[in-house]
Known about the structure:
about 300 residues; Four Helix Bundle (Hemerythrin (Met), subunit A); 2 domains
Amino acid sequence: MQFINIDLQKKYNLWIKELSSESTLYDDCVISIIDILNIYFSIAEYFLKTGEGRINVGFIGPRDKKILSNAVANQMFRYTKNNDLSDDYLRCAALFYELIKSNPFYNCNKTTALISVLYYLAKISRVPTTSHKELEIITRIIASNTLRNRKAFQQYAKFENGEVRFLARYLQETTLPLDKKDFLLTYMELNKILSDLGFCLKNPHGNSIDIYRIETRSSIFGVLKNKKKYTRVGVISFSDWEKKVKKNEIRNLIEYTGLTAREGFDSHIGYIGTPPISSMINKYSKIIIILGKND
């Protein structure tokens, strides 16, 4: 992933290198340790950009990679005595609970846990039907160790991992199939995806912006650094980087670039598979800001 803040990017690159080998240990996990890092650093970038939350670049990252690894591995725990609950919801709940309780990061633990559970649900094509306020409350209840005091929890008190079972039931009963149209890309989000595919949006002019193909060419004998060549391939309408990209403009962009689902780009909604993390952060930004003030 690419971040605007240079110091944040350096820290991210270091942790990706540090934990890349860990990601292969959890093939059974829907959410990988790299996914969690991507979510955490994306939230950190959001706070640094907006000035919200309690965050300092000097204290960004995992407190301990073993704690983080164990939280991710919690998805693999098997619950064999409650067959009325789907494995997916149990794993999702286990990840949610452990990310909050173990505090694997210096900051942004509750916000990372919340976006991680939403990201997990999106990966299994589910989306919450509850209000943003309720999602905030359930996150705070877990963090404050008061879940067992709730009347609705009593039927789960007999289980050793009752909190996870309760949360799994809650997630199962308060989600519906995901409508990915809720996560249409902004121009900024689209540009981040394009940069990974060898293209970019540049030079806004009037109500339009140019599409460029990026080619990297090595200098003679490799003495000098690689140079990038930008070739204009088309133009789409444009108003602001934070505005959503209309579907017809996505279709136009695909026609100009030749990108298809095979490259990881879907012509119907602008991405294939799970909605971009940045879109989820934008959608749930109010909760993130509230939780971030005490995170």
